[in-house]
Amino acid sequence: MKMLITEEHTNGSKIAYFSMEIGLRDEIPTFSGGLGILAGDTIKSGADLNLPLVAVTLIYHKGYFKQDIDDQGRQIELPAQWEPSEIMHTVPEKTTVIIEGRTVYIQAWVYFVKSPKGGEVPVLFLDTNLQENSEEDRSLTDYLYGGDDNYRIKQEVVLGIGGVKILKILGFQIKKYHMNEGHAAFLTLELLHQLKNNLNDVWDESYIWDFEAVKELCVFTTHTPVEAGHDKFSYDLYRNVIGDYFPENVIHDLAGNDHLNMTLLALNLSNDVNGVAKKHGEVSQNMFPGYKINSITNGVHSYTWTCDSFKKLFDKHIPGWANEPELFVRTDLIPPDEIWNAHSEAKKILIDYVNSTNNLKMDHETLTIGFARRFATYKRASLLFNDIERLEGIASGKIQVIFAGKAHPKDEGGKKLIEDIFAYSENLKGKIKIAFVNNYNMETAMKIVSGVDVWLNNPIRPLEASGTSGMKAAHNGVLNFSVLDGWWIEGHIEGDTGWSIGPESTETVPDDNANKIDTDDLYNKLEQIIIPTFYQNRDKWVKMMKSAIGKNAYFFNTHRMMLRYVTEAYI
Ligand SMILES: *Cc1c(COP(=O)(O)O)cnc(C)c1O
C-alpha cells in the first residue's frame, strides 16, 4: 500500500524535529549510536502521544557500517547497503540548495511512524541521489559520519537548508524547529531567508535580519560536553560551499570569528536551549556562559526497550504501562518470583544467542555483566581489566562478561579498545568468560540490555551527557553499576536502584586521578556487595530489580521527556 503525505499530515502547526541520525529500526541503518536511537525513541513517543510532529534526516544509502571482527579483535567495516524502496517511498516534490555554486536537487523519502494509539509521525529522509545531480552531489547522502569536513558541511546544508525548504514545499506549517544537536543549525539561515522573502525586502548591506523571529521559532538540544563533539568548519570552507547564500560578516556574529561553530549558531538563534541531563545542563552552561541553558533529561521509548517476557509481565500486572509509564509506580505489586522468571527468560535468550556465536559455553546461572555502547575512548570499555590479577582474585568463576559496540572507522583509539578486550579475554581464559558480540545494533542491544544481570557503565566524568542504555536496562529489571555521570546522577539510589562507581560528580573537567579511584571502587563493590548479593541474597536482588523498574523506568522514558519538551520548549 502506498502511503502519501496528505492534508491530514500537514494541517495545523507542527513541530519539525531535525536530526543528523535517526534510529527507528535496524532495517533503516541511518544511525550510529545513542543520538540516533534517542531521536527514534523521541519520534515513537511523539506518535504515541499524538503530538503534531514531523521529522527530518538524511537517507544514507550506505548507512553507517556493518561491523565484523577478526579473531584478533580487529574491526572490519562492511557497507550497510540497503534498499529504501522496500521500506518507504519518495514524495514527488523536489527542492534545491546551492552548493559550491551548483544547484543540487533534493527529494524526500517518507516513512510513517505509527502508534497503536492512532498517532502518526512522518519522517522525511532527504536524498540527493537524483539524475539531475552530478556524481559528486549524488553521493552526499551515502554515508553517515563518513568523509571529511567538506563532505560534512555539504550534508549539513542538505539537512538544514534543504529540510526547511522541502517542508515548505510539502505544505507543512511549522511553529517550532527542534534541532537535535548542532548538525542541523543551518536551518536557521534558511529561516532568516524565508522571513526576508516574506517581507519582499531587498537584500543589501543595510538589511536587518530578523534574528528575534527566528529565535522564537527554534529549540536547540545540545548533546555533548566534549569539545570535539561540536561541529566546527573553517570560513574558507563556508565561503566555498555556501558562498553568497548568507553574508559572511553576519555569520561571524552568529557562529564565531575564527571558525563556524554549529553549536554557537544554534545557541544564538534559539530561544529554548537544553542539555540532556541536569549535570549536562550545568556543564554546558559552563562551556557557554551568557546563554540560558536548561536541561530536559533523556529517556527511552518504554515499549521498544522492554523485552517480551517483561512486556507480558507488565501487561498482566500493570496494563496500560506502555503508553503511561507512570504506572511503573505500581511495580511492587508484581510477585518477586514472576520478576525473576521474566528475567531468567531474557537471560536464557541472550546466553543461548552468545553461545551460538562462539564456543565460550557461557552458562545461565553465572552473574553476567554487560557493557555495550559506541567504543569511544572516553567510555573506558576496558576499565574492568585495569588490574587483571585483582579481577581474577575477586571474580574467577563468579562472573561472565558480554561486550558489544562499534568504533567509528577513524577512531583508532576506539578500535584499539576492542582489540584490548579480545586480548584480556584470551588472558582470562578458564577463569572469566568474556564474549564480544559483533555488530551492535537495536536487536543485539535489546538482547544484551535485557539479558544480563548487571549493566556496567564507566565513562570519564563529566563526559557522558546522559547515556540511555542504562535506562533500557532498568526497564528490564537489570541493575545499573555506573559512574555518577549523566542520567545516573538522577537515577541512582545506592543499593536500591543499583550501585555507583567512584565519587560523586563534582568535576566540570576530567580528573586525571579518576581512573585509579574508579577502578578501586569498582573492584571493591564487585567483591563485597554485588557478587555476594547475587549469589546469597536473591530476595534483596529482586527487590532492587523492582526499584530499578519502579523508580528508573518510571521516570527515564521518552513519554515523560516529550511532555517536558511540549510544556517547556514547544508551547
Ligand atoms: C541505546 C543505544 C546506544 C546508546 O548507548 P549509551 O550507553 O547511552 O551510549 C547506542 N547504540 C545502540 C544500538 C543503542 O541501542
TrEMBL record:
It comes from Candidatus Scalindua japonica. Belongs to the glycogen phosphorylase family. This is Glycogen phosphorylase. It comes from the Bacteria. One of its GO terms (molecular function) is pyridoxal phosphate binding. PANTHER family: GLYCOGEN PHOSPHORYLASE. InterPro entries: Agluc_phsphrylas, Glyco_trans_35, Glycogen/Maltodextrin_Phosph. One of its GO terms (biological process) is carbohydrate metabolic process.
